[in-house]
Amino acid sequence: MTETLLAFQNVSWQHEQRIIVRDIDFTVQRGEIVTLIGPNGSGKSSLVKMAVGLLTPTAGVRQLANKVRIGYMPQALRLDRSLPLTVRHFLELASPKPAPIQLLIALNEVGAEHLLNNSVHTLSGGEWQRILLARALLRQPDLLVLDEPMQGVDLTGQEELYQLIAQLPTQHRCGVLMVSHDLHLVMAATDKVICLNGHICCQGHPESVSNHPEYLRLFGLQGSQGLAVYSHHHDHQHDAHGCVTPHLAPRLDLRRQTLS
Ligand SMILES: Nc1ncnc2c1ncn2[C@@H]1O[C@H](COP(=O)(O)OP(=O)(O)OP(=O)(O)O)[C@@H](O)[C@H]1O
Predict the structure, then answer these.
(1) Does the UniProt entry include the keyword NADP (predicted)?
(2) pTM of structure
């Protein structure tokens, strides 16, 4: 039985005169991984911030199921370097304060228990991402929201981290909403892909999307080659406000079309 944790209905977010994202419709169910892809500035982080409640939609409705706990891994978290802070102390800042055994379990799950007493300021990019994931898991979330979890992680580490993320819905009985640019890895570890460019260009299961003739037209040759490289071909243009304007030779309009 499906359980909807998060639903966006016709959601838009406008900043001053500029519409950043518009007419967004999608859901995240318990047990599934939904991944947002799209070019820089396409509104992925804005949408994620609305998902976790840091931004309020200027139109439409964002609904959370009753008593849903959210674990959030932001795209960037800057810490004052003058503050001495170990991983243990950083994780203990979580609310409610976790018990020592919970810290160890979370760190063990992300393969970072050896970092417990290290300074957060000396961690590598990949290590820091794991600590942020552990911090999100400590909330025992129903919905885990990960904004570019692979930042600063090397290729081997990315595969490991994706394998880990792929197991989370089963192990934690949660839903995952994730932003990623790593299309080839995304496709291996995702139940649903949402392609965003100020609006939803297309969405669906990776297999059906990658075999869908309209997807192939959207992504061109790369789409037929197992999505090894990501590039965003667009069937229309955007004006300075992010609004869609007709392309001179429109190929296809996939706005808000579900491909699965
Ligand atoms: N608080 C804000 N005020 C003004 N403009 C904003 C704000 N937040 C985001 N924007 C603008 O909205 C657009 C979308 O930003 P957003 O960070 O959501 O994109 P993104 O798809 O996550 O990009 P990236 O892949 O580079 O992280 C950008 O042009 C950005 O400058």
Answers:
(1) no
(2) 0.82
